[in-house]
């Protein structure tokens, strides 16, 4: 099951070898970083022709070129800053250069560590090849070989994460919105299942899961719409790729003929902004209260505390009535509105940036069908990464979701990495 | 027709045929029933917030009888939902509600929140020592359930102020004291609160002097006095008229008689001349905050305030854009 996770794992050993060709260009450079002797040592043992086999690596030739450039910049900077007789007097310049150095270090340090481990791998590989008669020793070496490959995998991830631009929203909370799509009551029932799935997942992660808004479809427990706030460390970063159309194929409890229906549910994950992220002008809001005509105050005791807020410039509407306190409903509505406006703003920026690069960047399209839950086959397939898990129950109870999230993260990170280089 | 559908249909008459509101009321009533019978399904309903046929169908007989009784009280007797449920959320508190004491309104909650936000910075700049020696003193006139006084106590920094509440009604005072002890046991009482019996309309100056001898004067006077005119009272909903204390609602002179008396007492006896909180003036914190019945009362009340030398008179609107509070300062 996990072997289908991503192409990277399939050809892991090739991938690792591919890194070894990196030092090619450094061989004749006279500004070699500290680890240069490792590199030249490694180089001699690798055949260059293998490179063509390593297409699956995240660190392809373009990335490697970039990393080389960064290493040069890094050593230049550290020389400049280390030097006691440094010519930099301007404190602003000094600060910005120090910042750049520390940013670069977060990439270079794991990268250099990675190369060191690669050399260990070569050594082991050599030893395995040279000791073909000693089976016990060979077995031991093979075990170590596997360990090192695991280590390299993690290091490569660190390098990739450090290379792509950080999204500060990743660390924060997220607003989760679920809407029943096509398929009537069955879609609304599945929306309730999806809501439950994320709630269980949040529970397993020890995150706080707060239902802000539930619009019920019928008395059988189906929901038309749900908005929840998930709070904890790294919620958005983990769940950001859940946005899109989730499709269910099953025999609905409501169908007495026992036919399989296909229904859809739309999920959106929005980063929760702070008040500073989104500045909502009081004048742009229209706030309606239920039965607000009349004198109000002591004159009436209305039990309805429903609040509807319209953001005039965007036409975005949020209505809340779950709390018995009207000010609390208003605060909730504003919270959701703020998240939606922030999301719009981010999407706009995202689109402008992709257009500049003249290319489509995967995420963000909420009408894209991303996943299928097939009950008859007991499977869940994520169409973006062709990952299939044959354990529907474990996905719906939240336990296997992390496997999918991890796969998606690697996929989108590699995509982001490619985009960075264009 | 399912049992749930029947209950909803009955409740619709109380919610002007708003189905989602009827669903909300039924959900709250069901939660209240399950709380009393300690039915474990309660947690499921509370977290999922979805009331299903299934839940209603699976209530035991006793639970069904109680739920039916609640719906009947609500529909046939026009009993306010808050009296059935026994509480109303107000700022960060659950205020206990009992007939006939006035049920806290959302408009009051809104301006109390605003007032707390306005007062808070005052105590950030004042050292702890100073505010312990001279706590910021607040009096809440016509305190009713005590919702304003208690929310101020809960919302302001620990030991920053001292709050008194007064009311004419013994029902109100015993409910206010019940709320007070409830808050104390749930550790939400961050500042001392005391309630006293006082009939401010009938009291002669000697009684006020006696009351004031317990205190050195106040930095802030707040009040949500009765402000409904006799004519208006006739037009009110049964929920209000049949259940809530008329004493807490109706006032002579078109609902404005309390404002003149409060302005007089505040100027002459209640407000301190020398405040230990010079920042209060700078931060434009009013010394008098009174809830009002609407724009039709404003000119009359402003006139009264001027008579007793109040300045910087301002109106606070509520969320429905109605004139809801008159605020003013006595000292510069």
UniProtKB/TrEMBL annotation, chain A:
Organism per entry: Gigaspora margarita
Renumbered residue ranges of the record's region Disordered: 347-370
Gene3D superfamilies membership: 3.30.160.20, 3.30.70.1660, 6.10.140.1950
Composition bias, Basic and acidic residues: 347-358
GO biological process, one term: mitochondrial translational termination
Keyword Protein biosynthesis: yes
Residue stretches making up the Prokaryotic-type class I peptide chain release factors domain: 291-307
Pfam families: PCRF (PF03462), RF-1 (PF00472)
Keyword Cytoplasm recorded: yes
Protein name: Peptide chain release factor
Cellular component annotations (GO), alphabetically ordered: cytosol; mitochondrion
Keywords for the protein's UniProt record, in alphabetical order: Cytoplasm, Methylation, Protein biosynthesis
Family according to the record: Belongs to the prokaryotic/mitochondrial release factor family.
From TrEMBL, chain B:
Classification lineage: Eukaryota, Fungi, Fungi incertae sedis, Mucoromycota, Glomeromycotina
GO cellular component: mitochondrion
GO molecular function: nucleic acid binding; peptide chain release factor N(5)-glutamine methyltransferase activity
Entry-linked CDD domains: AdoMet_MTases
One GO BP annotation of this record: methylation
EC class: transferase
Transmembrane feature ranges: none
Residues annotated as domain Methyltransferase small: 134-231
Catalytic activity: L-glutaminyl-[peptide chain release factor] + S-adenosyl-L-methionine = N(5)-methyl-L-glutaminyl-[peptide chain release factor] + S-adenosyl-L-homocysteine + H(+)
Species this protein is from: Gigaspora margarita
NCBIfam families referenced in this protein's UniProt entry, alphabetically: hemK_fam
Keywords: Methyltransferase, S-adenosyl-L-methionine, Transferase
Enzyme Commission (EC) number: 2.1.1.297
Matches recorded under Gene3D superfamilies: DNA helicase RuvA subunit, C-terminal domain, Vaccinia Virus protein VP39
Name under which the protein is recorded: peptide chain release factor N(5)-glutamine methyltransferase
Entry-linked InterPro entries: DNA_methylase_N6_adenine_CS, HemK-like, N5-glutamine_MTase, SAM-dependent_MTases_sf, Small_mtfrase_dom
